[in-house]
Design a protein that fits this description.
Largest sheet of chain A: 4 strands, parallel
Largest sheet of chain B: none
CATH superfamily of the largest domain in chain B: Alpha-helical ferredoxin
Distance between the termini of chain A: 23 Å
CATH architecture of the largest domain in chain A: 3-Layer(aba) Sandwich
Structural class of chain B: mainly alpha
Number of helices of chain B: 12
Strand order of the largest sheet of chain A: 2-1-3-4
Distance between the termini of chain B: 16 Å
Shape of chain B: elongated
Strand content of chain B: under 5%
Radius of gyration of chain B: 20 Å
CATH topology of the largest domain in chain A: Rossmann fold
Radius of gyration of chain A: 19 Å
Shape of chain A: globular
Order of helices and strands of chain A: EHHEHEHHEHHEHHEHEHHEHH
Structural class of chain A: alpha/beta
Number of strands of chain A: 8
Number of strands of chain B: 0
Largest interface: A-B, 64 and 64 residues
Helix content of chain A: 40-55%
Helix content of chain B: 40-55%
Number of helices of chain A: 14
Strand content of chain A: 5-15%
Oligomer: heterodimer
CATH class of the largest domain in chain A: Alpha Beta
CATH class of the largest domain in chain B: Mainly Alpha
Number of domains of chain A: 2
């Protein structure tokens, strides 16, 4: 599929954000592999900074400016942005929409941005990886790239809140009854597992304030997945991944329960189905060993 | 702002107790309604959808978004802004999506948090994130070892942030002052 002629939609600026290069490089490595295999060209985003989300609770205006600055940089590159972190994607997408629609706010923000030689014009789009896979790569093309269908995998999803919420501002999929992630998981040949409270938050954003609540929330989701026979959990967010993968041994210890549910970034699952090796997809970086699952690949 | 001191948050009683006439700030709801995201605060009729659907409230003995919204409507500014439970919202936006009155509950909480730290010391987790962003461009300081490992794994080098530009924006919003203050 790589020989296919590339149209302008098949080239994106990659917004990496902070958490992925800091702690979750396996998400980045597997995404790059898979997108290359699907004929998507990624361009590094020059001079980018934090999307702004972490500062929204203490200074909303600072969040707006940090997000707007990133949007201006993308406009200069004349490319649409994809973000792997739903926090980044949601923030940039929301601010982009607000600035495009609200002239008063746009003028106010531009007044500040002028000090750094930038101006928001509203010429680009921002999408999360899932949205880009569904809308720009398309399910058909993904299905065509599958060489090793993972038909023996029973897979549950946890998409991360900001991929679809708040629905009015994000405008992607259905936040109450999402379909897109399911279809992308099924495209790999896996059997999709429904479970109670699938769309519920993992609690990660308040881990720094009170980690007892996120741990209890994540435990409940793991228990619900186990109850429904899920063998594997797939995420598309570095923070959710830390909650379910990095913290899983801790959850098992605190609640005296046994899960051992491997947590893959979606591009790792897709990559396995596209025939990439475990090493190419950085599966060795996972805390919960996926070997009992991957050993089933013929 | 609590830091992993669960018992203190859960035992908090600043939101409880009889309301005294003298503690009502009649301009408070106007102040919130004037901020982006707070416009529909008055529309809340206390149905409780936000609290019953809140994943955090299910595991917390104290965090109740409906209660916070009601107290904000009533003008109990001091109580609401000094409440530690304000910092338990995970910003998952379930409440905002499901509110039958279109109150942007999560945004109202964000407005309250912003007001709670206005002119004050920034709570330390945010101070650290803020300093990292202003000094390096990213919310976390990415260790040298990580950068070397990137090169080894064949990943492209991380783009360098424009620190001068970020500093200018932090100056303009008064944010740099907020992180200096708390040193």
């Amino acid at each position: 599929m790589t020989e296919e002629k590339q149209n302008p939609d098949q080239k994106f600026l990659l917004f990496l954000g902070c958490a992925i290069p800091y702690r979750e490089t396996s998400y980045e490595i597997s995404t790059r592999k898979v997108l290359q295999g699907l004929g998507i060209e990624l361009v590094e985003m020059p001079e980018y900074n934090c999307c702004g989300l972490p500062l929204d609770p203490v200074n909303h205006e600072m969040m707006l400016l940090l997000a707007a600055r990133n949007l201006c940089l993308a406009e200069k590159e004349k490319l649409n942005v994809i973000a792997l972190c739903p926090g980044c994607a949601g923030t940039l997408r929301k601010v982009n929409k607000k600035l495009k629609e609200n002239k008063e706010l746009r003028e106010k923000i531009n007044e500040q941005l002028k000090k750094t030689g930038l101006e928001f014009r509203g010429t680009i789009e921002v999408k999360h990886l899932l949205q880009m896979l569904a809308e720009d790569v398309t399910l058909e093309k993904i299905k065509a790239a599958i060489t090793k269908p993972l038909s023996s995998f029973r897979v549950a999803e946890h998409s991360g809140c900001h991929v679809t919420r708040p629905a009015g501002e994000i405008g992607f999929d259905n936040s109450e009854d999402p379909e897109v992630f399911k279809s992308l998981i099924e495209a790999t040949g896996s059997r999709y597992v429904e479970y109670t409270d699938k769309t519920a938050c993992c609690g990660a954003p308040i881990a720094g304030v009170d980690d007892r609540i996120p741990l209890a929330l994540s435990r409940e989701k793991l228990a619900n997945i186990k109850e429904m026979g899920g063998e594997l959990l797939v995420t598309v967010c570095p923070f959710c991944h830390m909650m379910f993968d990095t913290n899983q041994p801790r959850i098992e210890r605190i609640f005296n329960e046994d899960f051992k549910i491997p947590v893959l970034h979606y591009p790792q699952l897709l990559g396995l189905a596209m025939g990439f090796s475990e090493e190419e997809l950085a599966l060795n970086e996972l805390r919960v060993s996926p070997s009992k699952i991957t050993s089933k690949i013929s | 702002m609590p830091q992993k001191n669960v018992k203190d948050i859960e035992k908090e009683d600043v939101l409880k107790g009889p309301i005294r006439a003298g503690e009502i700030d009649f301009g408070f709801r106007k102040e919130i309604a004037a901020s982006p995201g707070g416009e529909k605060l008055r529309h809340c009729y206390q149905c409780g959808t936000c609290t019953s659907d809140c994943p955090i409230a299910r595991f917390s003995d104290s965090y109740r978004p409906r209660e916070i919204i009601r107290m904000a409507q009533l003008g109990l500014k001091k109580r609401v802004l000094s409440s530690n439970t304000l910092w338990l919202c995970a910003a998952c936006y379930t409440c905002t999506d499901r509110c039958p009155q279109d109150v942007e509950v999560a945004s109202v909480i964000r407005i309250l948090r912003n007001l709670a730290v206005k002119g004050k010391l920034i709570p330390s987790p945010f101070k650290e994130l803020g300093k990292n962003i202003v000094e390096t461009g990213t919310a976390y300081r990415i260790p040298e070892l990580r950068l070397k490992k990137r090169a080894k794994t064949g990943l492209p080098p991380l783009p360098k942030s424009n620190i001068k530009a970020i500093e200018k924006l932090a100056e303009a919003t008064g944010f740099s002052q907020m992180i200096k203050q708390s040193d």
